[in-house]
Write a structure and sequence with these properties.
The complex is a heterodimer of chains A (258) and B (228). Chain A contains twelve helices and no strands. Chain A is mostly helical and 258 residues long. Chain A has one domain. The two termini of chain A are 28 Å apart. In chain B, strand 8 and strand 9 form a beta hairpin. In chain B, helix 3 packs across helix 4. Chain B is globular. The two termini of chain B are 33 Å apart. The chains are: A mainly alpha (258), B alpha/beta (228).
Amino acid sequence: MTLKQYFSLVDTIARLSLKAEARRYYFGFWWWVIEPLLYVAVFYVVFEKFLGTRTPDFLMFLIVGKFTFIWFSKTVNYAGNSLIANAGLIGRMDLPKTLFPLAVILECTYRQTAVFALLGMALILDGYLPNAYWLWVLPLICVEALLIVVCGFIASVLVCIKRDFALLINLGMLFLLFMSGVFWDLSAISDQSTQEALLFWNPVAFLLHSFRQVLLWQQTPDLAHLIGLTLLLLGGLALVANGMARYRYYLAQRVVTT
Amino acid sequence: MMSALKLTNVGMRFAMNSEGEKRHFQALNALNLEVNRGEKLGLIGGNGAGKSTLLRIMAGIYPPGSGTVWRAPELSIALLSLGLGFKNDLTGRENALLAAVLQGMSKSDAKRHLSAIGDFTELGRFYDEPVKSYSSGMRTRLGFATALLLDTDILLLDEILAVGDQSFRNKAREALSQKLTEDRTVILVHHAENAIREICSRVVWLEQGQVRGDGPAEEVLEAYAKAA
């Protein structure tokens, strides 16, 4: 299979899955934007109305955080189940095993374009007008996509080895929601070194913070950290993709027999 | 006679984890089998005899736990079955597209084949309805039409003729027999003996992961019927 065939196959599977998903529900495609909006509404009521958070312009702060976080959390969750969900196919054809998580990731990314479009509209309606800092969004999206691919591949392998990992990944996303400053401001941590450590070790927190910097606060993200993270992820991707190719038979056997 | 496939001492053991207790299931046990080029081989045996595992190992989905599998390097191979796993919310046409692309067709080639596949299935307007509205007979018809797209040198057929009503079954056999050219190697797993009798000259009978009988179709089928 050539690289071109591979990516064309990934794209075809992703597009057809989108269609299937949209047909499954009454509101079809609309769910892709309804879901993050509902999250934002609930968080807004709880933290702004009930608890009276002191974060300035909390609504936009929340929208930027949740809309970029949901791409990561949903996609990695779905990608985790992608190998076992295709057991019938894997038991019949010797296809590259990265095909399945990658198709899911692409499918979710197509959906996410609607979420990003909504994010842009919300920002403009609230008076955040496009400026040069917004250009940073492109590299930030690329790095987040890379993070999703690496984590999604790893998740699919783990679930393939033991189904229990699916539950663990689900829980992990909940923990990440709390640990990444989706609905609270990292600068609220009084200890400076804790705050820095969180941004350093948690790439999701770092990316969310960077999105806010460029979209809301007209600040430049930490370029050195961004480059370091990119290199690390590229290395990780090479390692994981290679491992999945090398252990393709083991994966097929796990998928078919468990 | 040149070999197409040769399995030597092939064994396969699966771990089964039932209620926390670790057990093993020996799917194949020191199995030897040689298949010649152009041969039409039938594979029979009860449930759990190891037929599906054997087909998967032959197709290279995964290697055997022990022993070796040799396949003539210049020959292409494919494992065909009806249960490709359709996506219920997609139409028959979309599922056919997916199946064709998965089997290595380019998207534009696949699109050209779609109406021919639709005609073959006799699904009519249902071809553009979601598969979830299909009867089981309609599903298998679509399954058969999309499974038979490949033209590999070795065809491994897993219960592929188990399709719906008599008239479509005849049509399916007709379509399949066009694939049974002299130089094509075919290994057929099927529960109905007359299909095997019709297509295969040699039959291998598997029992508990081992070859219990191997020879001319009539002889082995007779012995199998007696044992049952």
